[in-house]
Specification:
Length: about 450
């Protein structure tokens, strides 16, 4: 019975994958599969996980789960994604994106001859940004607003640019990361030494492998694309969109605010931390002030807000609904005992410290890939490690560190991960095509992680 839920979960995953491959509406597939699993788990609680909230009515308990998921996501990451989507649309409409690209392309024009080389240089920059903005979806969309237009105007294909941007979220490290916070709490060590002494050295090696892999993978895939799809700008060319050069500050303003007040780099002597959504709304206001100074027409400026709200609406119907559906699907897997089954499997194999470290790293990678969430996977497996490490006489961090990294790696190749859904939607490219480009680089760094880390620690 210990593996009953795990086996059923794998069967459901196989059916869902088959339906998604047939290009059936993904929101419907994930939502219905998740709700069905949750309903069955409520209906037969003795066969599945025991941590479900129950009011003795399986049907309404299931829809209460749906209600809570919509409420929590819309109030948090959903609002953030919609705000970023609206801001990107507004920046494009007023010509700010075009102004930024025109300025950036002058010093970067050399890279037009080497677009693939230019694209991989974004990876270390993106990693630094991800340390300060530890939300994968938020960071991905910020880079879509600021870096993506520059990349495609340098000749990088849309798919290559999106794959690089999502690849930048492969390593969830830094003091602001919730996985880092959880790992240090579990291991009972300070965050800063864990970040500087453990995460940074291995992250440097893995980023180099990631850059090398993406260079060749995107070069290979781009050769198969029609020429018109390789070089295709994201910037609006509407009549009258020509904006002054100083408008270039608008698309990168949210990023500047988040880096300046991130809590990681204390650039200004102010005890202030700005959230992503707050930065979006503030930057929108700055854009409206610029428009008012330029046009001196309050009616036209206020009418421009329609573009912002339209952008928010587009993000909701295409991205947020898919994230909610993926959340319901992940909740269904958890209610079926998917995580519990994997944990029982790892505990009952009877292998040594090296074997258990490798196994836990791979299991958390697979769990994150299937559920689209690195956090959920790590939170489920992480607390088990101190006892496992003590049993084998090794440090807890020797197992926690690769698990920390593999959780975010798995998310980077999950077609239901929020960051992939959101960035692909903005770029208007299929999520599955982004996953195809991410597979080899991510598996390359996973293998490098296993060989390098466990070769040194065991």
């Amino acid at each position: 019975m210990a593996y009953f839920g795990l086996i059923l979960s794998i069967l459901v995953i196989a059916i869902v994958v088959k339906l998604l491959v047939k290009e059936i509406f993904p929101q419907a597939v994930l939502l219905l599969a998740g709700l069905l699993m949750i309903f069955v788990a409520h209906l037969f609680p003795d066969f599945f996980t025991k941590n479900l909230e129950q009011n003795n009515n399986p049907l309404f308990d299931t829809f209460e789960f749906l209600n809570k998921s919509f409420s929590s996501i819309n109030a948090g990451v959903g609002l953030m994604i919609m705000a970023i989507g609206g801001f990107v649309a507004y920046s494009d409409k007023i010509g700010a994106s075009e102004a930024m690209v025109n300025i950036a392309l002058k010093p970067l024009s050399f890279f037009k001859k080497y677009p693939n080389f230019a694209s991989v240089l974004v990876i270390p920059i993106g990693q630094l940004i991800f340390i300060c903005v530890p939300s994968a979806a938020g960071m991905g969309l910020l880079m879509m607003a600021s870096v993506f237009p520059i990349m495609v105007n340098l000749g990088v294909s849309r798919l290559a640019a999106v794959s690089i941007i999502t690849g930048c979220t492969s390593f969830c490290i830094g003091p602001a990361s919730v996985i880092t916070a959880s790992a240090t709490q579990i291991a009972k060590i300070d965050t800063v030494p864990y970040f500087i002494d453990m995460q940074i050295p291995i992250a440097i090696i893995l980023n180099l492998v990631l850059m090398l892999s993406y260079f060749f993978v995107n070069k290979y895939f781009d050769k198969k694309l029609p020429k018109e799809e390789v070089i295709h700008t994201n910037i609006s060319k509407e009549a009258g969109s020509k904006a002054p050069a100083y408008y270039a500050i608008i698309p990168i303003l949210p990023l500047m605010l988040l880096l300046s007040f991130s809590g990681v780099f204390q650039i200004f002597p102010l005890d202030l931390k700005i959230e992503t959504t707050t930065a979006m709304f503030f930057s929108l206001l700055v854009g409206m002030v610029f428009e008012l100074i330029r046009k001196r027409d309050i009616k036209a400026v206020l009418s421009g807000l329609k573009t912002f709200f339209d952008g928010m609406g587009d993000m909701f119907k295409s991205v947020v609904t898919l994230i909610v559906s993926a959340e319901i699907f992940a909740g269904g897997l958890i209610s079926f005992g998917f995580i519990d089954g994997l944990i029982n499997l790892s505990q009952n194999l009877g292998i040594g410290a090296l074997g258990i470290g490798v196994l836990m790293t791979i299991l958390i990678f697979l769990a994150a890939m299937l559920m689209g969430s690195g956090n959920a996977a790590f939170f489920a497996f992480g607390p088990l490690i101190p006892n496992v490490a003590a049993k084998f006489g090794v440090k807890a961090t020797s197992i926690l560190l690769p698990m920390n990294l593999s959780a975010s790696m798995g998310r980077a190749i999950s077609p239901i991960a929020g960051v992939l859904i959101a960035t692909a939607s903005v770029a208007k490219v299929p999520v599955v095509d982004v996953v195809k480009r991410n597979l080899i680089p991510v598996f390359s760094v996973l293998i490098t992680l296993l060989i390098y880390h466990f070769g040194l620690c065991f």
